[in-house]
Amino acid sequence: MSELEHRIYFSLLEKDQRIFTINYITKNLNISEYHARNIASSLVKKGAAERIKAGLFARTPGKRILNRKLYHEDSILIGSSLCRDYFFSHYTAVNIHGLANRYFNTIHISSPTHYRDLEYHDNIIKFVKITRGRMFGIKTIPYLNRSIFVSDIERTLLDIVNRPSLSGGWFELIDIIRNIERIDEGRLSDHILEFNNKKTARVLGYFLQMIERTDISDHMLEKMISFSGRNNYYLEKVRGGTLNREWNLIVPDRIRKVLNDR
């Protein structure tokens, strides 16, 4: 490595910074953007860094430089470096909270700003466009050497019920609800009002009752029924199933069987 390449690499090493940008190089070496891009390109060629996308790079650990093809940076760490107004959501949030039963190679990031999806080795970092009004229920947690934003348990429940296709489907969702150690009823109530989707509230209430969550009171379930109105809803777009009259929800028989909904 050249002297400047050496300086920037060991600067990243000393700070335990695994993801870096062109801007990081320009500021730390006090050089032009053009010069910084040349240095980044040289680091990639020498195996000391990997290009993730234009202007964004991952530092290769020293012991992996000679076998760089065997090294892949953590996809969640990369995802947290792609934008500012974001949070990890859906099945990725499920995974971060330790509730996942299987591995998904898709990383879901919710953001009110449009970003292009990114492929990184065998993983896909997929952005879910949301309104700014749904930027709530987000917590900051430590992850590896930095802090990341992720939906809390209660917001995650609303997201996976609202879009089960991003979370493994209904059967996976049932297992997730069973795996949750504790649901904060007050926080869930507040999130339901902010999320403001009647069908989502109805479906979530149905699952919570059928799974017999002891941390959800009858009063809370009644509030969810009241909030969601009187219209009948189909659980799935493909119509069919049996009507649960308490929830006015038409549920496919294969799902009712798993929930012992008689």
Give a short overview.
This protein has helices at residues 3-14, 22-29, 33-45, 75-79, 90-96, 153-162, 170-179, 185-195, 198-210, 218-227, 253-259; strands at 19-21, 49-53, 56-59, 87-88, 106-111, 118-120, 123-129, 138-143, 146-151, 233-234, 242-244, 249-251.
How would you portray this structure in words?
The chain is α+β, with helices and mostly antiparallel strands. The protein folds into three domains: 3-73, Orthogonal Bundle (Arc Repressor Mutant, subunit A); 74-181, no CATH class; 194-262, no CATH class. 40% of the residues lie in helices and 19% in strands. A hairpin with a 2-residue loop joins β2 (49-53) and β3. The protein is elongated, with a radius of gyration of 23 Å.
Alpha plus pi helix count: 11
Q: Name the shape in a single word.
A: elongated
What structural class do the secondary elements suggest? alpha+beta
Strand order of the largest sheet: 4-5-7-6
Domain count: 3
Average residue pLDDT: 90
Beta-strand residue percentage: 15-25%
Keywords:
262 residues, alpha+beta, Arc Repressor Mutant, subunit A, four-stranded mixed sheet, three-stranded antiparallel sheet
